[in-house]
Amino acid sequence: MLILKTLCYHKLLGCTLLFLACLSVNAQQEEQPRKNKNYFGFEIAAPIKQNEAYEENEDEPFFRGAGFYVRAGFGRRLSDWASVGLHSGIEWKFDPDLTAAPVFANLKIAPKLSQDDEVRPTVSFGYGKVFVLNKNHFSGNFLRGNLGLDIAILDANGSRQSGTLSVFFEISYYHFRPEDFENLSTFNVGLGYTFL
Hints:
globular, Beta-barrel_OMP, Outer membrane protein beta-barrel domain-containing protein
């Protein structure tokens, strides 16, 4: 399992370096200033994991849902392609039975790769604290990284972007204390919307 986690983190790091390379291309392009620099966003996602019953019965699905989360956040766009914010939410994990509330700072990078600017690849990193609400109320560190696509939503006139719809894959890592509680990593698939 440790090898799988390490491979996932290395792949995420490799994809991040690819997106950062795209930033140098993006920096050379002209940015169109937007009037509002603040944002408010929310996201919903479901952690998925391999179904252990699949090995015994191939009629079972290979993946199964392992929980659900809702998060919201607000922040500031530093430029047309980068933003920072503060995010929080509630997460339910079915296995193990866990209800948690992460509070984390988030950095999102969405480079412009084409002239139409309607779809952008994104990479996002978050780091903060997670508070467990149903098991002796302990806390730990929270780390997340996600890759996705942002799709521009235009206003009624079609002249200005009013928001973005996001589709993403995320890896979350929960490092809990006390140390006898098992640390937890999840692979999540989700949707989000950001109001600009």
